[in-house]
Amino acid sequence: MRLLAINPGSTSTKIALFEDGTQLWDDTQRYDSDVIGRFPSVEAQEDFRLDEIKKALKDKGAELSDLDGVVGRGGLLRPIPGGTYRVNEAMMEDMKEARYGSHASNLGAALARRLAEEAGCPENSFIVDPVVVDELVDEARLSGLPEIERRSIFHALNQKAIARTAADEMGKAYEDCSFVVAHMGGGISVGAHRGGRVIDVNNALDGDGPFSPERAGTLPTGGLVKLCFGGTVTEKELRKKLSGKGGLVAHLGTNDLREVQRRMEDGDEKADLVFRTMAYQVAKEIGSRAASLEGEVDAILLTGGLAYSDVFVDEIRRRVAFIAPVKVYPGEDELKALADGAYRVMSGKESPRVYER
């Protein structure tokens, strides 16, 4: 079975062709900001990106008629359980209307559906584990104010893919394992996985949880209120400080952990403190998720770009290794995760889920 996986980003589209689970090739289409800027909205880019994907397929000598399925990255939908979803009209409408927010990933479903239709396999157009996966237990959802409910928005695709990989290595089904998974990239999300569900996780989109290279993390409430009403920043500026210009960027002016480590090696004490504090906060969040799992943790899984840093990983490991074994999976492979999810349905190993408005 041949399958095309699509991952639309803000200024790029990544695609890869798979055959029976093996990647044959991949391609990244990058767009100049002035090209993307001529479109009034993300949703208006659909035809442009579709044509670019077709050109890439032609350049690679691939025919649409050879495809048995197409899978796209899932975007901002209503909160849904994890799994592989067939693209349907309800999903298409919510994405095109940007009903739950506008993001480049919203294009994944539409591109998958249109390419699958042209390939003659519209029933095999999918999305897998979008960022809005919501499997929280009630205790994780409630906050101290009735009008503010905790939201589940996190790196669901990579977290669940890594959890499945770890379960396979242990000779167990994902549904039979309990993991704490920390995705550590520009944003950091730490999830408690039990019974194939993520029962507790921080909202990585808004920047809750540990501070990260670009996000401020959970802040002292009184200080945040004072900042909100102090008249020094607008709401737009504050949102950018919380998610985009927080964390390492705010403290050190860079989101590159390698640069931070170079400064540490040169004796920069501030860089050293900020680096260790970020690892400390990740470790604390892992401990919190272990409590969510009542201490029954098969393994702690560290993934994402920051997991390439042995020093950063070691800082976390020494604080959490008493909880469970720590396993490290650096980086992320979203295209493979998308393909694996689609293949599970196409091979009959898993039933597709149905999206409803």
UniProtKB/TrEMBL annotation:
The gene is buk. Keywords: ATP-binding, Cytoplasm, Kinase, Nucleotide-binding, Transferase. Belongs to the acetokinase family. This is Probable butyrate kinase. SUPFAM superfamilies: Actin-like ATPase domain. It is found in: Cytoplasm. Transmembrane segments: none annotated. GO terms for molecular function: butyrate kinase activity. PANTHER family: ACETATE KINASE (PTHR21060), BUTYRATE KINASE 2-RELATED (PTHR21060:SF3). It comes from Dethiosulfovibrio marinus. It catalyses: butanoate + ATP = butanoyl phosphate + ADP. Its EC number is 2.7.2.7.
